[in-house]
Design a protein that fits this description.
Helix content: 25-40%
Strand order of the largest sheet: 2-3-1-4
Number of helices: 5
Shape: globular
Radius of gyration: 14 Å
Order of helices and strands: HHEHEEHHE
Largest sheet: 4 strands, antiparallel
Strand content: 15-25%
Distance between the termini: 28 Å
Number of strands: 4
């Protein structure tokens, strides 16, 4: 089952969630796209979560988390309506992919006041969170 979850995270990593809405200037695109440390999070909301909680999480990811200085790129969204047949996991509520340069960048992200604000606001509505941190293999 974990393999299926990881597959869903990888599908998110290749762009199913759509482009980041964080401002990016042309000079930064290469650096942002090549950030090798990947922090992937899959949120499962509680059954009694507010009906707009998915939209709120997405909005706060874009408005709070994407602006944290160590974040090079961020993608967030609900499960894709059309997904890889027979293997894609679609029972989660929100997928989040955060690219940083290294573990130090991840630590700065996790300890940042905007991340702590996000966690404080949304954790009460979350039933389960799966987190996958991996480093992009050298090409």
């Amino acid at each position: 089952m974990r393999t299926l979850f990881f597959g869903a995270v990888l599908a998110l990593a290749i762009g199913i969630a759509g482009p980041s809405r964080a401002p990016v200037n042309a000079a930064d695109k290469t650096d942002k796209a090549s950030a090798p440390y990947v922090h992937a999070v899959v949120f499962y909301l509680k059954k009694d979560a507010p009906k707009d909680e998915v939209k709120e999480i997405v909005k706060d990811c874009e408005e709070l988390l994407a602006k944290i200085p160590s974040v090079r790129s961020l993608k967030v969204g609900p499960p894709a309506e059309k997904a890889t047949p027979k293997v894609a996991v679609t029972d989660y509520s929100v997928g989040l992919l955060v690219l940083v340069d290294d573990f130090d960048g991840l630590t700065k992200y996790l300890d940042h006041p905007d991340h702590l604000k996000f966690v404080d606001k949304h954790l009460k509505h979350v039933d389960k969170v799966l987190v996958y941190d991996f480093v992009q293999a050298n090409k």
